[in-house]
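Re: export button greyed out
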Amino acid sequence: MKKREKEPEQKKEEKQNKKVTFNISKTNNFSEWFSEIIDKAELADLRYNVKGFVVFRPWAVRCMEKMYDLIEDELQNKGHEPAWFPAVIPEKNFKLEGEHIKGFSPQVFWVTHAADTILEEKMAMRPTSETAMYQMYALWIRGYRDLPFKMYQRAQVWRYETKATRPFIRSREFYWIESHDCFATEKEAEKQVLEDIDTTEKIMHQKLGVPFLALRRPEWDKFPGAVYTIGSDSLMPDGRVIQQPSTHYLGQGFAKVFNVKFKDKDGKEKYVYQTCYGPAVSRIFASVISMHGDDSGLVLPFIIAPIQVIIVPIFNNENKAIIFKKADQIEQELKNSGVRTKVDKREDRPGEKFFFWEMKGVPLRIELGEKEIKNKKLVLFLRDSKEKKIIDEKNFVEVIKKEGDLYDKRLKDKADKWFKDRIVDCKTKDDIKKALEEKKIAKCNFCSIGKEGEKCAEIVEKELLASVRGTRHDKKEIAKGKCPFCRKKANFVVYIAKSY
Amino acid sequence: MKKREKEPEQKKEEKQNKKVTFNISKTNNFSEWFSEIIDKAELADLRYNVKGFVVFRPWAVRCMEKMYDLIEDELQNKGHEPAWFPAVIPEKNFKLEGEHIKGFSPQVFWVTHAADTILEEKMAMRPTSETAMYQMYALWIRGYRDLPFKMYQRAQVWRYETKATRPFIRSREFYWIESHDCFATEKEAEKQVLEDIDTTEKIMHQKLGVPFLALRRPEWDKFPGAVYTIGSDSLMPDGRVIQQPSTHYLGQGFAKVFNVKFKDKDGKEKYVYQTCYGPAVSRIFASVISMHGDDSGLVLPFIIAPIQVIIVPIFNNENKAIIFKKADQIEQELKNSGVRTKVDKREDRPGEKFFFWEMKGVPLRIELGEKEIKNKKLVLFLRDSKEKKIIDEKNFVEVIKKEGDLYDKRLKDKADKWFKDRIVDCKTKDDIKKALEEKKIAKCNFCSIGKEGEKCAEIVEKELLASVRGTRHDKKEIAKGKCPFCRKKANFVVYIAKSY
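Workaround output, generated via the alternate export path:
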């Protein structure tokens, strides 16, 4: 008897140790929430012993690999070809474009030695690849038939960030795609900028449910070497905007420096017009985590979830065999239809498994017990709404696929509503201050996003601890009245927010 | 009239400039063949201005991305999870395992500066990731339930190669997957080595048609830090073997250094047993190019070809519209079935297009003219055998898919036959010499692959300019007679070859 009494207690203790409930308020304590979910859901590990470098763990990598697929498919459909360029850039290339070197120099990691030998020329670990790619473009592009020339690479880049690093959001190594395109005319190049915004819209917003504003950055905040920069600003739950994929119109600046020319139909040699675009999957994932997650943990979009449907069998020693068999059948049918599925056969209690997979953000859960098998029904749990549905075993694969789509649509709709509510029309400095205090984005009139507006932007930075993010690029917004800072005539409608 | 006479001549000249025939003997001049096809088929560009670093161009990248998919699917099916580890390794980690540091030190690129700052500790650009990954394994692995622990990363590595570099074959940056697994027992770990060989067999041999020998390397040629190493040796047309995916049984050496322990069922802490495995997609692609290509250019396996079916419409100004429409229809139907297809609508002559796509290695070509449309037939050209088949328009998608499978099978069968003929049983040093002169692999008795055999191996290197590659690991081969070098009793059957 003693033995029997002891066993359950031991088990209980063991089970408690493994219990993974997640209960942190995302709204009230976003920073803790974000750190904790990264740890608990095993997304990344910060204990790697080089400062600012992060290890990305399987649950996150499997999501981000799917994000790479989504973005690369879209880019290829839009005529881009993939390439792989070296990770190192010789110092002389790097120094060719004045603004570019000025902007990136403080961030470069330098490779100076190989074994015991000092390299003849030191090499930058690429912080971005313009100066690696364009010398090759000069060799490849010959005539107008070669244009448009649209190429991208999936790559890591390395930046010696001096701001505080945070996994996924800002680290010294990050994972992105950079696309670099060349055109015969300015007009075509500027059309590409809009196409790039459309790519962000299609992937980040439509598929992953993260809304954003496409903002033309003020003169003082553009990409080093660009004519202008369009940043995609998303919002985090703590009310700070985060720059997501940005696209840059480079004009002919780099082309002239790297000698990227083509012979036009009229027989004349001309410089190309260039654009570049850089969606960072690791950072987009930060928005995905933050936008959709809740106090119980992650809520992953169905489209990228490593496991889309978790099957939790409710069994005892008597009916285990029959229930496992049915669970395996259901798993197989879903897998055959391309749905990523797993049966959780661990000996833990169903409730623990429920909490665990909710914390991991698995979109749909099937609960399967004796009753369900008898009634030819399945209990379907929806991670986002925490709603339970009884569905018929007949046609369940189709129903589940449809539920997956509906689930992603709900995530997007909820995010859209939240985002819309957080953009506030402001007239005065006080209005703006209040909006920022309420963790919102202020929309207001502004004197200028050209050089002459920089003084007012400095007031925003110093007094409001926020920044002028720019004007809508995808939509014309007309200013009326005065700039709330200098009281001069406002020529622009800008967005002001605290940022990462 | 004058105008009409001039035009065709201008066009002719233009067309000659664009003509891409490829006619180099792979058998007689492999080295030139390999360099030229890389250039003509736009696989890689060697003009990047850092020595030993190569730019990989879209046609190659699209093949290698598919190779990554094949390998990653196989690894995931075998229970491996993907992760991303930092590209840099702190010097102290790197120095922890004595043999490892000795082996890799001469090859390491060192990052010493960030911007103008000297780093407190210099960092190695990973030449391989044992010393990055295992410190994290020590944090993640706790108990026997965590084992087996099977993880891989898709990554580039950097090695300061002092041997001559060659694109795909050996360069200072290469693209691979490295898989690092931990087990509770030696037995399980050694079983993993066999599983890894099976992965190479499934992907490189069965799917890509590149045969190989799984050879246990002699003591003096194993991976730095390993107990033993199994290399997969493929053969190049010039008779030199090239090491393809190798797998290493690491024993507990790294585990002890990096403190990778687990609590076993008996409650005791034990060190794990480890294996690692590194398929390099860029190098496997070198074998794919070399094994299947012919004097007309590339012959790509159907399974990885960026374009599997090229449709060449045969048209004039009168029937262009109708033929293009039909070509588009066929393209769409193939695409809908997941076949990568393209219609070549350029104004060049059909013959030029034929040569071009043959050089690029596209497996199947559909020729489509007025006659074919009228007869509801398609002309199908097979790149490998250069055979033409007339197929019915009815069910053509299924027929083409089947032809794709048959085509890949033919490539494999041809390669297998070629490889088999190139392994020669040898008894004497003269036999071996003759085999090597005939660009073959010599199979012979040998005294020992332990330390005591190294003297004979030195004779092989000095006198025959070849190396002892090792013994079959997947199959027992029993030695009879004497070692042809020292005349002592032979204990092993080894393979001797010239190598890359």
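The first strand of chain B starts at residue 44 and ends at 45. The button fix ships in the next patch.
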